[in-house]
């Protein structure tokens, strides 16, 4: 999820992002990324892929991944449940894509964009477009045996994904997972490449960005929905991570977000 895919396990949803950066995470949905403009680096299971303007990338369910914009990027992202593509889901079980980056013909791109990145399409159009997209993807790549991620890393990221909107701490997570605070702190820093607090704040703020872009909830309500106990802490971390206030972010996204 982006962390917020947890809210859409049985749905298909889409949104547009600008200069997106997101730390390591995982989820049960597929994540389709289309770079409209600029470039983006996507790290999947410790493999790095460079996306350029006009290219697509597919992230499979439960693959640990992060998104990095080094200069500038504008992307469309489509999140969809494995239930939408059961035949493909059976095909890729216990496998990963040798290369998840792919291109589409102009005709396929027009059709898929209309069906997947629009509220006007119906369920049959969406499913048909997904299978067309996956068919073109598989013509450009192969399946390889999936690399097994460390179980502890999966447990850590899953725990944070499930509880980031609550009052959580590294110490509390260590107790829940059955590890010492010191061990888990060192493990987290070594594998996620950032501190627990910074990761938690970035996860919460990215979820806040999603809510700011897709709902009319007040900023105060969003702060509490994201796990912050006071608006001051929320605003401080938002500005630190996004370099603008929540209000400014919402105003910028109004013209970009695809309903």
Which key phrases capture this entry?
about 260 residues; alpha+beta; Jelly Rolls; Arc Repressor Mutant, subunit A; 10 helices; globular; Homeodomain-like_sf
The CATH level-2 architecture of the largest domain is identified as Sandwich
Into which percentage range does the β-strand content fall?
A: 15-25%
Distance between the termini: 18 Å
Based on secondary structure, the structural category is alpha+beta
* Helix segment tally: 10
CATH class annotation of the largest domain: Mainly Beta
Number of strands: 11
CATH domain topology of the largest domain: Jelly Rolls
Shape: globular
GO molecular function: DNA-binding transcription factor activity; sequence-specific DNA binding
InterPro entries: AraC-bd, Homeodomain-like_sf, HTH-like, HTH_AraC, RmlC-like_jellyroll
Organism: Neobacillus cucumis
Keywords: DNA-binding, Transcription, Transcription regulation
What does this structure look like?
The protein has 259 residues and is α+β, with helices and mostly antiparallel strands. The protein folds into 2 domains: 143 residues, Jelly Rolls; 103 residues, Orthogonal Bundle (Arc Repressor Mutant, subunit A), CATH 1.10.10. Helix content is 43%, strand content 21%. It contains 10 helices and 11 strands. It has a 5-stranded antiparallel beta sheet, with no helix packed on it. A 4-stranded antiparallel beta sheet has the order 2-7-4-5. Strands 9-11 form a two-stranded antiparallel sheet. α2 runs antiparallel to α3 and α7 crosses α10. The longest helix has 19 residues. It is globular and about 50 Å long. 32% of the residues are buried. The N terminus is likely disordered.
